[in-house]
Design goal:
alpha+beta, two-stranded antiparallel ribbon, single chain, 140 residues, Glutaredoxin, four-stranded mixed beta sheet, 15% strand
Length: 140
């Protein structure tokens, strides 16, 4: 069992880049495709606590029912917003990564470098061509 977990959407470039950066450090994480296996409300609460962010910071608007559900309205409590995420996991922004060094919403993907226990093993270039890590394994 890995000591790194990524809540992943394989259709998302940022999520794919984050997973690739984790693997570039020599780790093979537990990959949870959260659209297939949605986190429970208690898991979401744990993730938010570990990341030190509020539920609104985890909400994704683009390509989700955010607007149709009126989630921009301040009338919704955090508890109610979490219920919406459980019902509609696409509302969860991604990727979320947990490691022994902490948890983070990794947008942009290179934010994962701050919480990886092991250094990068070599160069890494994002899918869009942006160089993130040089040949010496250093963030550029």
């Amino acid at each position: 069992m890995s000591n790194i977990t990524i809540y992943h959407n394989p259709a998302c470039g940022t999520s794919r880049n984050t997973l690739a950066l984790i693997r570039n450090s020599g780790a093979e994480p537990d990959v949870i495709e959260y659209l297939k296996t949605p986190p429970t409300k208690s898991t979401l609460q744990e993730l938010l606590g570990a990341m030190g962010i509020g539920v609104r910071a985890l909400l994704r608007e683009k390509g989700t029912p955010f607007a149709d559900l009126g989630l921009g309205d301040t009338k919704w409590t955090d508890d109610e917003l979490l219920d919406f995420v459980v019902q509609h996991p696409i509302l969860m922004n991604r990727p979320v990564v947990m490691t022994p060094l902490g948890a983070k919403l990794c947008r942009p993907s290179e934010l994962v470098l701050d919480i990886l226990p092991n250094p990068q093993r070599g160069a890494f270039t994002k899918e869009d061509g942006e160089v993130v890590v040089n040949a010496e394994g250093k963030h550029v």
